[in-house]
UniProtKB/TrEMBL annotation:
Signal peptide extent: none
PROSITE patterns xrefs: EF_HAND_1 (PS00018), EF_HAND_2 (PS50222)
Protein name: EFC4B protein
Lineage: Eukaryota, Metazoa, Chordata, Craniata, Vertebrata
SUPFAM superfamilies for this protein: EF-hand (SSF47473)
Keywords carried by this UniProt record: Calcium, Coiled coil, Metal-binding
Coiled-coil stretches noted in the UniProt entry, renumbered to this chain: 149-294
InterPro entries linked: EF-hand-dom_pair, EF_Hand_1_Ca_BS, EF_hand_dom
Pfam family, one: EF-hand_7
Record organism: Catharus fuscescens (Veery)
Length: 321
């Protein structure tokens, strides 16, 4: 039974090479080179062991069920051997001879190897002393002690398998959590980038609209100035024509002078307005430059604020992790 249990544990490790903590029907096919069973027979054995029908076997289900299966196979073979006359005495005597001649150290080491104690115990001295004492003083209790060791190491193996399952589940949760953190980080980066672009676009549109308005006003003033210049030239031509006439009257001349003075005043007023418009345009340009600098400072402050919020969120995410 000790050998069968140990063999079942080895078979489970062969099937579960990935360390999943369970065995599927496909994993069971890896025992084909180890056992004189076909793939179909191995599949039938898996179906028999999978009592709950969930498609997988835990270490306890596999080791317990497969141990029973191996013991049944051994019992069948023993029955076949016992049915043949004269074939039992020699093996029994051979086994008794071998047991009597075996060295205690070899027997104990073999027992520890079957139980897989080297994976669990760092020091086997205490167990060895107790085993030797029972072997010498109470040999009738030795089998009970070995069965007790089988149960203990089987439970330790199950605990180790459960620990591996928990570690695997924990790794999956950590991976999922890291993926969620990365997703949140990317979303935060996209949000910061989007808000920054919207802020810059809105401020740029406002500045362009103000500039276009100033350009329209300047163009209108230039058109008015051009019209006044053309009017002045036309009046000067009329004045020249009147002065060159033979029958010029004093009233008409005075009227023309007054008109000319009025036009000069209009021209002077228009020139003054144009100068004021140019000054206003310069002031507006300076204001636009100042607004642009304020916009850059505001963008810098907003970016710095977003960066601080981002750092705060990252710290919170690190704390949560």
């Amino acid at each position: 039974e000790l050998t069968v249990l140990r063999k079942a544990q080895e078979f489970f490790q062969i099937c579960d090479l990935e360390g999943k903590g369970f065995v599927t029907c496909q994993d069971m096919q890896r025992l084909h080179p180890e056992l004189p069973l076909s793939l179909e027979e191995l599949e039938k054995v898996f179906v028999t062991l999978d009592a709950d029908g969930n498609g997988s076997l835990t270490p306890k289900e596999f080791i317990t069920g497969f141990s029973h299966f191996l013991l049944e196979q051994i019992a069948l073979k023993n029955d076949m051997v016992l049915s043949s006359e004269g074939e039992t005495a020699c093996p029994v005597r051979y086994e008794e001879t071998m047991s009597g001649d075996e060295d205690e150290e070899f027997h104990f080491s073999n027992l520890m190897d079957r139980l897989g104690a080297t994976k669990v115990l760092d020091d086997e001295t205490d167990v060895k002393q107790l085993w030797l004492q029972l072997r010498k003083e109470e040999p009738n209790l030795l089998s009970n002690f070995e069965e007790f060791l089988v149960r203990i190491f089987s439970q330790l193996q199950e605990a180790d398998n459960e620990k591996n399952e928990l570690e695997c589940a924990l790794k999956k949760k950590i991976a999922a959590y890291d993926e969620e953190i990365q997703h949140l980080y990317e979303e935060m980066e996209q949000q910061i980038k989007k808000e920054k672009e919207q802020f810059l676009l809105k401020d740029t549109e406002r500045f362009q609209s103000h500039s276009q308005e100033l350009e329209c006003k300047l163009l209108s003033k230039e058109q008015e100035l051009e019209q006044l210049v053309q009017k002045q030239k036309r009046l000067e031509q009329e004045c020249t024509q009147l002065l060159s006439g033979k029958e010029e009257t004093k009233v008409e001349n005075t009227k023309l002078k007054l008109t000319n003075q009025e036009l000069l005043r209009d021209l002077e007023r228009t020139s003054h307005e144009l100068s004021l418009a140019q000054q206003q345009l310069q002031v507006l340009q300076e204001e636009a430059s100042r607004l642009h600098e304020e916009k850059e400072m505001e963008v810098y402050r907003v970016t710095e604020t977003l960066q601080r919020e981002k750092s705060g969120l990252l710290k919170q995410l690190d704390f949560l992790r």
